[in-house]
Amino acid sequence: MQEKISITLNKGLMQLVDMMRGDVSRSRFIENSLKAGMGLFEAVWIFSNELKKMSIKDFAASHLSQPFGKPLHRHEGFIDMQKDSLDFYDNDMNLLFSVKKSEIRNIKVGYDDKFRRFKHSRGLSPPLHFQMKNRTIYLFVRSSGEIMFKGNNQRFISFLKQ
Q1: CA-CA distance, 44 to 71, in Å (whole number)?
Q2: What angle do CA 96, 92, 145 make, to 5 degrees?
Q3: Which of 18, 20, 61, 117 would be 111's cystine partner, CB 3.0–4.6 Å?
Q4: What are phi and psi of 3, to 5 degrees?
């Protein structure tokens, strides 16, 4: 659901927005800036136990949509980086689950024996994966304004390793 809002910016701030936004509309630039400043990432993910349950159709869709489509996934939505946790939301911004940073282990970007390079992707962008609680999650994120979902988003990885 989208809502329209109205904001007032002083002349200096408006000039700064216009200098930085390039070809992007003012409203889109401000929205993207807010999302980026809030630590909000669009994300697609799958848990290791779900890889075994994927259909041929799921595999074909992820292979054929690359490199600009969505990589192999079962879930999509947003991840909000909090000081001590990651909050996972669906596309309607309903909270699905949270994981504390202290529960995150073995952060890696790459393929492994469960999420394999040519079986689960076209090999162009390996997933970010880590263990949390008793399961492994494979995810791809993109910051506001980015085109591709990537496993190696450095801003996201830096936050996890803090």
Answers
A1: 8
A2: 105
A3: 117
A4: -125, 145
State phi, psi for 76 to the nearest 5 degrees.
-145, 150
Q: Where are the alpha helices (DSSP H) in 9-143?
A: 11-21, 26-38, 48-51, 56-64, 117-120
pLDDT one-digit tens code per residue, 28-86: 888 777 766 668 889 999 998 888 777 676 666 655 555 556 777 789 999 988 888 99
* φ, ψ at 25 (rounded to 5°): -65, 155
Identify whether the C-beta of residue 127 lies closer than 8 Å to the C-beta of residue 50.
no
Q: Which two tokens stand for residue 85?
A: 């946790």
Token code pair at residue 7: 């904001």
Strand blocks (E) in the chain: 40-47, 75-81, 85-90, 95-100, 104-109, 128-132, 135-142
